[in-house]
């Protein structure tokens, strides 16, 4: 018993997009303990798709398809599957209704093209798509071959996978031995330095510990292979605690604890409020704070002071400081933080001013130089200088917002 | 005559890495005008790899392999190819020397394991690897089947491809015909509605027209297969112009024209400035404006008015409007837009206020209801109501910022 992933879409053959769907499904199959040995990409061509289906259905018992469920004529996955297994297509009224509702919710009229999305092979069941108009199917056209189809849109595919496909596979007996992982998240320390600190854990076999570096963050994944989540956690917990002790303040959370969440939780616990004054990030830090529903409990808002006139008029930054030290300086970062705290009357004020590049750098103030100011409830203000080096504008802006959050976290 | 890409590596089946190699090769094949219809990923397993090679060598005349050229026992691509076509492996002295030199340059001793990297099938020629220790091969084991192998390391693979593989393919007569594409980008119209409008173009054969939907945007790719870019553009241009005429204002740009870029260019042309007042997007719109280096020419900044107190104190939104109509209303959106325009003294003021969810929705004001206000240089203000439906918070916030940019674009 093994699975096989088949991705349908000429855009993949043209190299227009990276195939992240196949990586997601590959990981998920591994977590469920379902072996899979082949991945195939084929274009929107019925003859070739049929050939791929024929080959795969001989090799594997679970066939996962992504793509080709859209409303346009080149979306052919469902009808080609039906042809392959000589099954007629049936129009499902409930799908039509669902599509109509979604169009209505978006203030649009359903289009005739969408009707074809309501056609599924006789005997197949609907794999519901909560957000998009393209539902998938779960179908066993012949004994020991289960077919599941998903749209190519990653967000829709992932939701359909976790909400419907995974429970179905588990009901079939898969996932008995599960791989359960906990991701520990760190900031302010490099991958190699952390690796050296926790070196000895890398030799463990169950759970295993592996490092992952991502932008502005280092992670350690602790994975255990057991029959149940409870058993896995028993194995993982002591290791996690040891590592967290070793890492100290650089550890900020686990799994889906983002910096934003962690900072939000701390602010809510202390019943304190925060506002932001942003220059080079242009609103990115505020956008991060407000990613969290309910962030209005502690985040009041801020000022995007991209132009120096705004720094002066709304944040009371002194023209003198701007002239003598420049907009990218400790003193201006501090004045911005104090200015927004005072202007909005929040407990904390956080500011960012820097050179995101690619232009605007000098020998003394190179691209990637960023100052972060933090004004605390007592009215004290501190600033830190960050040098993110000669990286891309996006990355420097992103790291600036993350570092501002992390500085606030450490003070909280 | 077509090509096929085969990526070898268990790490791809486990989902440990995204397969960017296949996207690179797919793009390159398209540029050379070499059709390719299948991509296959298989693990480090000789039996399955052999099966894949057998299938592919019947379908395609050029087989490109990535991965499995390393020194470790699980690197099996070369020897499996040799077995498939019953060819002995020959040790190449020049490869041994090359590997020894590279180790010396890194101050290390060549490992015995590396000897296996010097074995290539009889009759194959070396595909040199300038930076790594794993060379590839170019081999025609049977008439009309050319095999090329590359290591999995992207940087090495790319260099070997462009320095040796491309010239070889061109010497075989490929690259005479290229595929050149132009992507037209649209907003404010759904994929199916646009498809209906431009239906007739989908039947064209050269250039071809194909639709792509992505979040908040629809794209049409026009691809021409010709001897030169100039000829391709000759074929593409008239079709593009027809489609642009049909789409009208919903067309906003092509290829890498983002909404942000297009709006920035228009503002710069008119030498006008803009500021933003953001509620539910919390700074996301400002962050979008400032993605562009040099946006300070036209973007001055704004106010993140997440809390109503900020709407009143900094944007002069009337408490009366907030009480009677609520923060999410046409009138408040308009007052915010006028307020920020006046406060910062910019030509345009753009505001966003809405319910990003998941909570906070009511029957009258559901999640996804967003008002966008635009104050123009004459001091007139208008607002539009958007219903983005019951989607995720991130998506609603993202679509809100995009729509605000698009509304400004239409007025510019």
TrEMBL record, chains A, B:
InterPro entries reported for this sequence: CinA, CinA-like_C, CinA_C, CinA_KH, Competence-induced_CinA, MoaB/Mog-like_dom_sf, MoaB/Mog_dom
Origin superkingdom: Bacteria
Annotated MoaB/Mog domain residues: 4-172
Similarity comment: family membership: Belongs to the CinA family.
UniProt name for this protein: CinA-like protein
Lineage: Bacteria, Bacillati, Cyanobacteriota, Cyanophyceae, Oscillatoriophycideae
